[in-house]
Amino acid sequence: MDLAAPYLTGRADDMATGQVPGLVDAAGWLYHHWYLLALAVAVCWGVSEWVVRRLAAKGSAQRMALELVSTRHFDPSLEEIFRRGAQLARASTAMPWWAPRRSKTVQIRLRADGSTPLRYRIEGPAGGERLLSITPFGPDVTVNRARPIVDEPRTHTVRAEFILRGKPTSPLREVPLTPDPLQPLIDAVADLRCELGDLAEIRLDIQRAPKWALRARRLQLMGAARRSERREAQRAARWLRQDASGIEDSLTWQLQQLLTDKPGAGSGRRLVMPPVPRRVEPVEALGKLAEDDHLVRVQLLVMCASNTEGRPQARLAQLQAAFDVFGGRSRWAMRGWRLGPWRIGADHWPTTRGFERRWNLGHCQPPRANWVRLEELTGLLKPPTINCRLPVLAGDLPTFSFGDPELLLQGIYRGPDGRKRLVATYAEETLFEVGVGKAGGGKTERALAQAIGWAHAGGGLVFVDPHRDSWPRALPFLAHDHLMPRVALIDLGGLGPDPRVSSWNPLGMHHGQAAHEVVEAISDAYASALAWDDATAPRALTILTAALTVLVAVNQAACQAGQPEDQATIFHVRSLLTDGGFRRAALAAVAGGLDEETRAWWQSVFPTLPPDGFAVVLNPIARLAANPITRAFLGQPVGVYDIRAAMDSQMIVWVCPGGNGPTDRLLTALLARDLLRAARSRRDTPQEKRVPFRPYFDELITLTGAAPETIAAMFEDLRKYRCHVHGMTQLLSRLPTPVRLSLVQNASTLATTAGSKSAIAPITAEWGDDPSPDRVATMERFEHYLSVTVRGRRVGPVQLHGPHLDDVFAAQARPQQAGALERAAQANAGALPLHQLTDRAVKQLGRVAAFLAAHAPAGAAAVHLSKENEWN
């Protein structure tokens, strides 16, 4: 053993001596051939990166997309938004185990291209779809499965990546929810224009923080904090020593030492104790990175494009300014370097390819500084809320095109960029309209512009105006050769020394109406205008209905005999009730056309009625006969006015009843009920073949005073027959309750001009008092707030400027042809001089009596006409 020990020791020394030169030689070889080592490292890195990219691309192929659409009442709480953020962070890990981290992300896409204010999409792993589809926002947010978006290439494109700058441990600014944190971003893209190819898109990738990266980041921050504290301590000690030396060398200190009586007080220098470095607290040094909970990494990419040079750069600058709202001690800043006027960023080599790969595949490779807590992303984790003011784009309100039958003019919208455009709604969706506002506010002017645009597009309408002011206003804009055959004027105002009047027989059967519908329409009109019902006037309703039934049967017989000129009119009700000979001849002539119950009533019940019981029925008719205009209009056997034919032939009919007295109200009630009857009679036409028709009712207060139930029924029923009513009124509160409730309930368009707060309040209440009555009441003249329906979605309330005919339709004005149009409108309505129609009405009783005598069965009593029976 003693001999072997020196041998082994020497052997080991020889081996060690031989290894050292070998290591030195290897180090020298590597030093001279360093490029081989670098090449090997690069190859290994390249192969690993290629494998990771292939796996990440494969994982990203299994992704889904959801689009979130919020209602205008969406108002989430901070807790709901935070829960949504936790869902997004959890869903980012719903990937296969082999998927690289860069593909484990959930992406929020905020996209605007001019068609919608802002589309809010969520894209993430397919495995997280169930988690992401159920949101904590409730029914105010609709989640739809979204299709991939395919963009057409734009001529000019700019890209940018935003990173967090400032103190890395400080949070972003806490932005309140009112107004909506998305408001700056929406304002930045509010003036995008589809026709120019404008596009702006923001993509925020959220990724759960990897533990090892978080620990490494914390170690780095703690080390930096300790080094900073040591430097501060050293700096403080240095300044302390300098201050002490300066004091001891000063004349004041030396004199103090000479005057003191303490021995040894002046010997030596003062001992200075250097400050000890302060203990670094992790919470203070790490800030928002101190806790693991709800900490995520984010990647923020932005792309703007357009077919017009300069617009993408301007848009990116607007978005950059919008992100400044979130900045505090930490802020969003564009990544890159600036060299004088040039900026090197995501649009330049070598970062462009990496940006495009992450953009196209949805990969998240954020800078190490992009650590945030979910609370910092509150403004971006939800769609726009009730506190967000959205612009009105062409996708919300289409632009009006003159002559387009699919569009209905609504007003002039001023965009965020100051551009004005005529906006419209789709005609098939504009079922009923209600316009409210003070006199002179522009509601009638807006209705006229809409009606004229609709007429030029080929649509049919009837404009009922008791005051007639709308007719001369619209006349120059309708005076076109192609419109003249379609325009008809029913003017009952009796203007001029020799007025011309059209004619209408409510009892006429020459148009092929159903007998029971005609009877029902007239009796209901009487009941509506005179406030009759089964409780207050049962006898009057019964007598009137029975008389109308007989006269309609007489007219039906006259038409079947080919003698429509011998039809009875509504004025023959008096003869039927008071002249026994006329009554016996009428009953005998139409005995075969009456049912057994009606004949029995005339035979057994009518003789028992006292003569003074007929006054309640005859008095309204006497008032109609006393007015020469209504006597001429209603006293003709074959009336020209036929609203059902006007509907089907797309006529443009202007009806001016002439006033709002008791007689005028009865006539208005007859016209309104006939319109309702005509629209309902379209049951005989297949729905797809019913031509759209639009009644416009100006001064609803006047019209509904005559026929409240009829107007209410129009707003309830006429949609089914493609007859769409537009009503204007100064005060909703002045309308009868059934009319007011039907108007507000069924209105596709609800509009108001300025007015008193009490008058406007019922309209703004329908909008949730946003805008408030105070704001609406102080609008300028011709300004409107209105809500409309576009593609089944409620849009507004939005502020529009009312269209003025002289501006909007200046090119269509033909004042030199106004006279020709008025003559054509009267000719189309069959208007004749008043005296001529009056003479015909006076002689009509004799014609009807002669017809009855000729068609009465043998043995029937002759009709005796006395002077008292003639209506002079």
Quick structural gist:
This protein has 872 residues and is α+β, with helices and mostly antiparallel strands. 42% of the residues lie in helices and 16% in strands.
Q: Overview of this structure, please?
A:
- The chain is α+β, with helices and mostly antiparallel strands.
- It is built from 29 helices and 24 strands.
DSSP, total strands: 24
What is the structural class? alpha+beta
Main beta sheet, described?
9 strands, antiparallel
How much of the sequence is in beta strands?
Answer: 15-25%
* Helix count from the secondary structure assignment: 29
Helix share of residues?
40-55%
The pLDDT mean sits at: 83
| Contiguous uncertain segments of 5+ residues | 264-268, 859-872
Distance between the termini: 161 Å
Radius of gyration: 44 Å
Q: Please tell me what the overall shape is.
A: elongated
Write the layout of secondary structure elements.
Elements (H helix, E strand, L loop, with lengths): L3 H29 L1 H27 L2 E8 L7 H14 L14 E7 L6 E7 L3 H5 L7 E5 L10 E11 L16 H6 L10 E10 L2 H38 L2 H9 L22 H5 L8 E12 L4 H13 L6 E5 L2 E3 L2 E3 L7 H10 L9 E3 L33 E8 L5 E7 L6 E4 L6 H14 L3 E5 L5 H9 L8 E5 L8 E2 L13 H16 L7 H23 L11 H7 L1 H10 L6 H10 L9 H12 L1 H7 L8 H6 L3 E5 L5 H19 L12 E5 L2 H7 L1 H10 L8 E4 L7 H10 L2 E4 L4 H10 L6 H5 L5 E8 L2 E9 L3 H4 L9 H11 L3 E2 H22 L17
Parallel strand pairs: 14-20, 14-21, 15-18, 15-19, 16-18, 19-20
Antiparallel strand pairs: 1-3, 1-4, 2-3, 2-6, 5-7, 5-8, 6-7, 7-11, 9-10, 12-13, 17-24, 21-22, 22-23
Helix pairs in contact: 1-2, 11-12, 13-14, 13-21, 14-15, 15-16, 16-29, 19-29, 21-22, 21-23, 22-23, 23-24
